[in-house]
Amino acid sequence: MSEVKEKEQSTTHKIGIYLWIWGLLFVLSFFSYMVDWYQFQGMLRWSLILVFMFAKAGLIMAFFMHLYWERYALVNVLLWPMTAIACFIFLMVAEFEYTVFTRLFYFVVGGQ
Amino acid sequence: MSDHKIEGYEFKPGFKGMAHDTGSDQTMFKGVHWGKAMMWIFLLSDTFIFSCFLISYMKGRGSTLVDWPNTSEVFGLHVFGVEVPLLLIALMTFVLITSSGTMALAVKYGYEKNRKMCGWLILATAIGGLIFVGMQAYEWSKLIHEGVRPWENPFGAPQFGSFFFMITGFHGTHVSIGVIFLFIYAYKTFAGHYDEGKKGWFTTMKGDYVEIEILGLYWHFVDLVWVFIFAFFYLW
Questions:
Q1: In a mutagenesis test of the B interface, which of A65, A78, A97 is the best target, namely the one with the most B β-carbons within 10 Å?
Q2: How many Å lie between the alpha carbon of B73 and the closest alpha carbon of chain A?
Q3: What is the pTM of this model?
Q4: Shortest CA distance to B221 belongs to which of B29, B34, B37, B42?
Q5: Closest residue in A to B42 (Cα–Cα)
Q6: CATH code, B170
Q7: Residue B77 lies in a domain
Q8: How many domains does chain B have?
Q9: Contacts B48 to A, Cβ<8 Å
Q10: How close B203 comes to chain A (CA, Å)?
Q11: Interface of B with A in 183-212 (CB under 8 A)
């Protein structure tokens, strides 16, 4: 029984960590809004958006959803399928580039 | 928290624990509440649904030759005679993050069996979610009045409307369902169902504060999805 109690205690954490993460999420959201406010363009804009996005997503998953403290079996079950999504993104990037190419080609040359 | 059927099971941390978990007899994730494991599996499948939406949006936006509408203007608000870009979306983001923070604290107080604090924080989360849905309803009606339809819009590429309504609509549905459950759970918390171990309506499972954590997982996931929608749909 004492073992069970110990386990239950390990699922609560000090309030400070939650408040810190909460504050960080606010700051990061503010920064990502600033990206639009100052109208950054091109690679700078896209990289900043991605950096803030992944930072926010990582903080939410790691601390609010407790994945940082979670057992590896669960973490691995959740994160490995994401590679399939990454593959799908690469496939669809190739697909839309091909679509744009064919559209441009036939708009210029003209199809039969 | 612990599964009584496997009393005496010793959890080992790190990769060793993972090997024990995946290679173990009868059940994986020993000691994890089945509802929590199932919620994670559900969230994983939901991740795939939202990924498919966002990827199809990427494909549609990437392959059109017409200019994409300038989201910073489309979602701007006219406040006190000044045009503020993307204001509504920024407010929605802050409201959702606020409610995510209160939910995280509710889970924490739930595990400390602090009934009152847990209940109030869940209620605060529910109200935050309600405000979010309200702002989204305003955003939809504003855009519909401006002539945005799934097949056309006055700002640019016609695909914009269909992706907008599909993606934010699906996310808004998730938020709405979450709000309903948050109100139910706030009631159950205040009524002490998790202290007494009272059974739920459709289940023989005894009430426990782990249910707050399961609800929290769902709510944080809704916030997580919004992070990606905010980045890819509104900012990109």
A1: A65
A2: 10
A3: 0.89
A4: B42
A5: A78
A6: 1.20.120.80
A7: yes
A8: 1
A9: 81, 85
A10: 23
A11: none
Q: Are A7 and B1 in contact (CB under 8 A)?
A: yes
Helix, strand and coil percent figures for chain A, each rounded to 5: 85, 0, 15
Q: Is residue B25 part of a domain?
A: no
* Tokens 């249910």 sit on residue: B211
- Among the partner residues B2, B29, B236, nearest to A4 by beta-carbon distance: B2
Q: Which tokens sit at B83?
A: 């045009």
In angstroms, the CA B143 to CA B130 distance is: 20
Answer whether B139's CB lies under 8 Å from B76's CB. Answer: no
Q: Note whether residue B226 is domain-resident.
A: yes
A48, A32 contact by CB (below 8 A): yes
* Phi, psi of B35, rounded to the nearest 5 degrees: -65, -35
DSSP-derived letter for residue B28 is: S
Residue B184: inside a domain, yes or no?
yes
pLDDT in tens, A44-62: 989 999 999 999 999 999 9
The SS3 call for residue B155 is coil
Contact A45, A32 (CB under 8 A): no
Tell me the domain boundaries of chain A.
2-70, 81-112
Q: What is the pLDDT of residues B144-190, one digit of tens each?
A: 999 899 998 888 899 999 999 999 999 999 999 999 999 999 999 99
Domain that holds residue B124: 68-235
Chain A residues in contact with B11 by the CB 8 A cut-off are 7, 71
